[in-house]
């Protein structure tokens, strides 16, 4: 059932109403003035355009793999490997710098 914008012919109030096709151009109750008005749908804007002004780009390989805000071993700029998901033992690891 579609949602229509309807303007009351008595109080000029605009309200939304779910109506099936058979109920169009029939009588509906206005929620503002409580009188019956013709259910004639308004012509409203058709398309909305969005404009992206800034796009996220990874700062390093870790963010490229794991997404924005990646942290942990291998996420700093001087890391030898660009992987956040490494399995090291901590002994002379080039990623952890230990």
UniProtKB/TrEMBL annotation:
InterPro entries: Regulatory_FmdB_Zinc_ribbon
Official protein name in the record: CxxC-CXXC-SSSS domain containing protein
């Amino acid at each position: 059932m579609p949602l229509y914008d309807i303007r009351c012919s008595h109080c000029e109030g605009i309200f939304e109403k779910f109506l099936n096709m058979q109920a169009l151009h029939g009588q509906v109750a206005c929620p503002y003035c409580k009188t019956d008005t013709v259910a004639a749908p308004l012509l409203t804007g058709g398309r909305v355009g969005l404009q992206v002004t800034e796009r996220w780009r990874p700062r390093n390989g870790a963010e490229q793999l794991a997404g924005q805000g990646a942290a942990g071993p291998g996420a700093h700029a001087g890391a030898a490997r660009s992987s956040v998901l490494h399995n090291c033992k901590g002994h002379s690891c080039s990623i952890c710098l230990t």
